[in-house]
Each structure stands twice: as C-alpha cells, then as structure tokens.
Amino acid sequence: MAANRIHELRITVSAVLSNLAARMSMEVLSEWRRQFVWDVLERLGDIVRQPLAASAGSKPKLKEGIMRWILVVIGVLIALLGGLWFSQGIGIVLNSPMTNQSFWAIVGGVLLVFGILLMVLGVRRTPTI
Fold it and tell me: Cys-Cys link to 104, which of 10, 29, 35, 98 (CB 3.0-4.6 A)?
C-alpha cells in the first residue's frame, strides 16, 4: 500500500517537475524542489513516527516483565544453593566437607530466605508506568 503511494507520488512529482521546468527558470525550480523534498520527508517522518510512538508505550511493560522474570530466576537459583548448603550444614547431604558444619547451615539458611524473598518480590512486583 505504501509502495503504491510512493510510486504514484513519483509519477506525480515527475509530471509536475516537467511542467514547471518548461515554465520556470532553474533557480526557482531548484528552490521549489528543495521545499518539496522537505515536505515529503516531513510527511514520511509522520508516517514512520506514528507506529513507533504506538509501540514505544509497550517497552516499559516489556522491560518490567523481563526484570520480574530475572528476579524470579535469580531468586530460585539462590534459594536452591541456600537449600543445598543448609542441607549439607545440618547433615542431610552426606559425603561433603560442609556436612555437619553449623557455619554452612547458617549461611545456607540466610541464602534460602533471601532467595525466597527475591522470588516473592519478582512475582508480586507491580509494573510502574
């Protein structure tokens, strides 16, 4: 559709310019061409800007959605690591240098809670507009 309009515009412009060339001097014609090109570019800019302005409104929502998923994924990874370390620290997971070490039980518990908090924040985060 836009290609047809551009083709029609080219035909119209060439017809108008050939008529003007016969009637006007080259200085006036070059000024008219310059103004005509600016008008065409301005109209094309409006045509291009409208869809871009409509799609720009969805970018903050998309970015917000991506940030929410990133928080959830990082929270899951941290919670899994914290759960593993907590399990090793209290002796559930055996055959590890961290087995039955209270330090790893405490660090794992803190990471587990932190990971769960990140997941909850990611899921409950409201989009800001």
Answer: 98
